[in-house]
Amino acid sequence: MRTRWQAVCLALFLVVMLAMPYLVSGRIIAVLNMMLISAVIAVGLQICTGYAGQINLGQAAFMGVGAYTASILASKTGLTFLLTIPLAGFAAALFGFLFGLTATRIKGFYLALTTLAAQFIFHFAVLNLPSSWLGGSNGVTVPAAEIFGLRFVTETQQFYMNLAVAAIMIAGAFGIIRSRFGRAFIAVRDDDVAAGIMGINVAATKANAFLIGAFYAGVGGALWAYMIRFIGVDQFTLFHSIFFVAMIIVGGMGSIVGALVGVFVIRTIQEVIATVGPNIADSVSFLGGDIVFAGMNVILGGVIALFMILEPKGLMHRWNILKSSYRIWPFPY
Questions:
Q1: I want to staple 63 with a disulfide (CB 3.0 to 4.6 A). Which of 136, 168, 217, 234 is the partner?
Q2: Phi/psi at 321 (nearest 5 deg)?
Q3: Across all residues in the chain, what is the average pLDDT?
Q4: Contact status, residue 36 vs residue 163, Cβ threshold 8 Å
């Protein structure tokens, strides 16, 4: 009965999502597009960090690799987005796999520093390679996604494209976690020594976690490129990587649904700050125009700190506690 109820709820949710462009304004659709792209990237980070236990502070760099790959392939070869999006994911996966190899030797703080280097390597490569390759500091213009003569240029058209890709990637994430690869990720996260004794290839498992996480980031980067239609290196900074980490912390580590909840919460906070911030800056002139960016970082940093202190297991942990309490009520345990 519970499985049937979950299927009904999922079907209703999909119907509401499909009808969303007819129910809300264009501004909300633009925000939902951002959430769908962020969901793909955050789910990949959840697999790498939440399930496999591998700290990753370079998710925005992997996203950037996917965005640049998709834009170059689309503009110079004319490939359809049905090919550029998975190819962008594979390019990012290769880049992430190189850093995943370091996870076989180091862990913890030193692994975080290594993934942090991905951000600087990505920025250095884009800015110093010939501008005819990646556009340098001028960025790259991305043609609209097109298939069979249909161009995805409006917010609504992009919403349906992003929704379809996000649904496929999220369904794939659930499949990965329920497979032997997912069980290996969890075993390595809990105790890599014990996992190795049980016969799990720990080095390959850690590297595969980075590969899968980077693949999701690359796909999300390709969707971002098609939505923005112009990409520059300043769109994939360390701050963006921290935002993705915040999403899985707030939603709950080790939960695909938790990553989605975290995306909704963090993106909502960002939109509220971006909307209210300019009004505050105009009302209190001495704060300056940088109050929006500074306030967003301060508030999001505070949210991360509060969750690490008060609810380190995220919102999904609290939700699971409430569900358990409801099922056993009125008994205490």
A1: 217
A2: -65, -45
A3: 88
A4: yes
- Please give the structure tokens belonging to residue 105: 């030797």
- DSSP letters, 233-245, are GGGS-HHHHHHHH
Q: How many CA atoms lie within 13 A of 195 on its CB side?
A: 22
Name residue, tokens 């760099």: 61
Evaluate whether 259 touches 166 at the Cβ level (below 8 Å).
Answer: no
Residue-wise pLDDT for 281-312, tens only, equals 667 666 665 666 676 678 778 888 888 888 88
Nearest to 46 by CA among 251, 206, 193, 268: 251
Cα–Cα distance between 88 and 165 in angstroms, integer?
Answer: 13
Instruction: Identify the residue whose tokens are 């359809």.
Output: 80
What is the per-residue pLDDT for 157? 92
CA distance 280 to 76: 44
With beta carbons less than 8 A apart as the criterion, state whether 165 and 173 touch. no
pLDDT tens column, 152-165? 888 999 999 999 99
Residues across the chain: 333
Phi, psi of 4 (to 5 degrees): -65, -40
Alpha helices in the chain (DSSP H): 2-19, 26-45, 59-76, 81-100, 109-128, 131-134, 155-178, 180-190, 192-197, 202-228, 238-251, 256-283, 291-310, 314-328
Q: Is there a cis peptide before residue 330, judged by omega within 30 degrees of 0?
A: yes
In sequence order, which residues have a C-beta less than 8 Å from that of residue 213 and are 6 or more positions away?
44, 45, 47, 48, 49, 54, 56, 59, 62, 96
